[in-house]
From TrEMBL:
<dbReference type="InterPro" id="IPR013988">
    <property type="entry name" value="YjdM_C"/>
</dbReference>
<dbReference type="InterPro" id="IPR013991">
    <property type="entry name" value="PhnaA_N_proteobac"/>
</dbReference>
<protein>
    <submittedName>
        <fullName>Alkylphosphonate utilization operon protein PhnA</fullName>
    </submittedName>
</protein>
<feature type="domain" description="PhnA protein N-terminal proteobacterial">
    <location>
        <begin position="8"/>
        <end position="52"/>
    </location>
</feature>
<dbReference type="Pfam" id="PF03831">
    <property type="entry name" value="YjdM"/>
</dbReference>
Amino acid sequence: MSIENIVKERSGAKCELCSSEDNLSVFEVPASPDTTAGSCVMVCNTCRTQIEDPEAMDQTHWRCLNDSMWSQVPAVQVMAYRMLKRLSSETWAQDLLDMMYMEEETIEWAEKGIALEELDSVKTVDVNGTPLQSGDNVTIIKDLPVKGSSLVIKQGTAVRGIRLTNNPLHISGKAAGTNMVIIAEYCRKM
């Protein structure tokens, strides 16, 4: 039996978050510990759109979490928890979070996904807040001593074809003939 069929049968052909029966699809919960049906939820198009685009959130739609947060399915609990965390500025959402109960490993799964979302939302920006991308050219805005050497990268030095690192605060590129990691806030996009 396919994952889609297992999740559809488990959900009773309804959205596991809001109980809608229209435009359903399987959604794999990010940061899942495995790739089985247990790591997926059946969601409607409305829920999926708002999960994937936090800017499109309609707070009143998510009052449905009052029911779905009590699901016995860990993936549904994780999604309910994450959505309530996004809405935690709303009093009703914070109240639901305070009442919610999950097993310890389910909480870890939920928190891991939230941490990944936050990391993905942090963008690499220059001194002016301009987003930087791989391949951009930047100028160093102040003299920077290079750790572990007597070399100083002078203000105004151009770094061409930068690469983003796994840390959004840093970029890497070639300055003064040497590949190095540079703090992004000491650069200005050209």
